[in-house]
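Sample 1 of the test manifest.
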Amino acid sequence: MDGSRLVKEFTKGLWKEIPPFRFVLGLCPTLACTTTVRDGFGMGLCLTFVLVCSNILISLLRKVIPSQVRIPCFIVVVATFVIIVELVTQAYFYSLYMALGIFIPLIVVNCIPLGRAEAFASKNEVIYSLADGLGMGLGFTCSLTALAIFREVFGKGTFLYHHIMWSGFEPFAFLQKPPGAFVCLGLMLGIMNLIGSGEK
Amino acid sequence: MEQEVWTFSDYIMLVVSGVLVNNILLIRFLGNCPFLGVSKKMDTAVGMTFGVIFVLTCTGPITWFVEHYLLEKFDIVYLETLAFILTIAVFVQLVEMVIKKVSPALYRGLGIYLPLITTNCCILGTCFYNIRFKFGFMPTVVFSFASALGFGLALIIMAGIRERFHYARIPKCFQDTSIGLITAGLIGLSFFAFAGLAK
């Protein structure tokens, strides 16, 4: 086991390859579940759990799964953990479950868990896959939370349902609506590119 | 499954709602990855559109049967997610094999989009909506078709606009996906004007 490689695999998900900005994958939850900070953060954690667990299991099974049928196998593994998340949120976080709705079961076709399984977990050892999954998951959570903070604070004038703007503040309702999500994400992506372009 | 009677105008409203008011891409946010991935060129967008219309119109009713005659019967509705994705994956694989055998010309046009469709969340999402809205059989067929049509409409509009980006001077950091998302937002805004036509 190599400590510096472990750190590298973990941190690449947080900035260098942060989803959904560096790879444009997993856009549906990014757009749909960021109207409030709670939803964005909750969605991020759900995906992190699925990603970490599926990465570990697929990495353990990487020598067993025949390569011709690997994609269906990955989907079944991911679906198993998605069902776990679905049942747990339904039992303990019911309001979050209602708010996210259809997007919890849809993690199963989210490109991030499948993409990481295909590109990383099926080729690397368990410990690195764990670091990769955790890094990517937390990176995704950060992106979603950042977008959600922007959309909630300016679109609704609240933060975690507490009013934080001054009393005469007129919220930009556009940001809460579906088209606002696209425009916000597009602008954020552009700004990320602007910051990132200096590094190369 | 309640046996309510659907009149013809109800179906029309369902189509209007699926295609325009609650457009699956722009208002419901399903299937955005292929939306941005294949909308750079018109012919790939058209290929994807026909693939999605065909697969969704078939898998919608199939998953409806799976839900009501398999999962509910054995009381294993919590396996819905797994059962649906497997049904879709198997169906897509089957269609791919049949098309390859029967019509090589169609396979060359459509073949590369079929594997992508399995992980297109607008397919699975529409199947879930069919169940959550408690549709009967006919509304399921109509709604699945309308959703796919809405997907195609948005995708083709987007491809038409994106082809013209070649002639526009876009700032370097906003190129490609970034400007694509902003454009999608503006198209979404125009679709928002239909709100209120149908629920």
